[in-house]
Every structure is written in C-alpha cells, then in structure tokens.
Amino acid sequence: MQTITTVVELRRAINKARSGGKRIGFVPTMGYLHDGHLALVRASQMQSDITVVSIFVNPTQFGPNEDLSAYPRDFPRDEKLCQDAGVAILFAPDAQEIYPPGFNTFVEPGELAKPLCGSFRPGHFRGVATVVSKLFNMVQPDLAFFGQKDFQQCAVVRRMVIDLNLPIEMVTVPTIREIDGLAMSSRNRYLSEEERRRALAISRGLFAAVAKFQAGERDAQELLAIAKQHLETLDRLQYVELVDANTLKPAEGPLCHPAALCAAAHVGSTRLIDNVLLAASVR
Ligand code: PAF
Fold first, then answer.
1. pLDDT digits (tens, 9 = 90+) for 212-227
2. Given 2, 90, 95, 196, which residue has the most CB atoms within 10 angstroms?
C-alpha cells in the first residue's frame, strides 16, 4: 500500500495504476475506521481493481460548535487496517493540501440538503459536497462507495454526481451494526456505557417500524408513530422522520414509493444518526 499526502503524488500513482485499464474504486472517509468503513473497502474490492481510501477530517462540514477538534483520530491504526484490508492507495492529505490559502469556491447542494440533518447542521452538506467533489477530482475514481448510515449524504452526493456530470458510479453500502443493533460510527467511542445503552432506543425504534412494515403496515403516520414510541424516550431527540427515499420529502398516507425512516439524537454530548429503508433498497 502506498500512503500519499499530496495531490501531485496521488495523481502520479493513480495514472500509473490506471494504465492497464484498471477500474478505480474510492472510499472517502474521515478516519477512525471501523467495520462499516471496511465493508466499503470490501465492496470496492469486489467491484473494482484498485481501491483508494482517503482519510481527511474535513473542517468545512463541521459547524462552529461541533466536534471538529475532538473528532477521533488514530492514523497509525487506520493505516494498518487499510494495509491489512488490501487497500492499494491511502490518501491522507492535511488541511492545507485540500484548502490552500485563497481557497474560495464551494459546491452548494440544493433541496436535498435542507431537511433532516440539513436543518440542524447548516452548511454541513455544502462542506461535504465541496470536499467530496474535490476528492473526486483528485482521485478520479470509476466507482465511489458510501455507507447508507449517512443516508442524506448519499442522496446529496448522488444528486451532485448527476448534476455535475461526474463520470462516477455511486454505490451505497448497507449500514453495519453492532450485535445489539447500534449503527457503527466513529463517534460511538464518545459514549459512556450508560449512554450506549440509551442510544439503543434509536435502532430499536427504527426496527420496530421495520417489523410493522414487514407485517403489512403501510400507513406513514402509523409507522412513524411506532418508531417515536422508542425514540421519544431520548431527551435530546433531534428528529425522526419518514421521508420519500428519493426526494427526502415527508412520506404521507399509504407508502407507495421507497421510504427512509431517519433519526438523529444527541445521547449525552454525542450526536448519532441512523436510518432504515422501508422498501426495496435504493440503488
Ligand atoms: O462520511 C464521511 O465520512 C464524510 O462526510 C466524507 C464523505 C468522507 C466527506 O468528508
């Protein structure tokens, strides 16, 4: 595995790797890797010839009072995990490399960035869209792999790929969970034992709705009400919403399109998100 920190070196390595007509799979991350990230790496390895992982804690997607400086980091551990997983290129630039002095151009996503997390984290998806488009330009992958846990991020990036005519296939990989249902997240490490127990209300609520859906319930309000019974036990619930999986607009009445049940809550000082799909999976 090559560990690379500059765009110049990265371009050189990618050009060389691509020379035999190889397909490049890209897994963008903010590091502190867990099994969810490794599932993205595995998906990339199955569908492409060369896997590039990036590790960059992107400052522009954090709000002023968010956890940018506290965001967990362990580069030596991440590097070893990538090496062991068979990653070909690990791109780990510093902030100056991505945002050199004078940087002043952003990618502004539209309506998909407004509801759900967008209404609690203004500017977050602008930061995500900007860094992801920069990373796409640097890596020039054929395929890019994102985790379904960040459902709205997937929707925003997929829209961006279409709107900006990026020649990249977006692949969404199902959420990987702990044995008790908690969605894997780098932020789980912030949770105390007691907070971790309380956090299970999120996945319990979502899966209670899935069970009802599987038993035949199709009414959006009913399904949402079932999830709320669990989620509203959390004192700092931000939202639980059932939305059309493509438009992210609230689902109403009997579900006739794929829908996503999405939730976000603070447990202690840790913000957690999760979601489930109620229908055949979105592409
Ligand atoms: O999902 C993440 O880890 C980040 O939002 C991403 C896609 C790497 C952009 O910084």
1. 999 999 999 999 999 9
2. 90
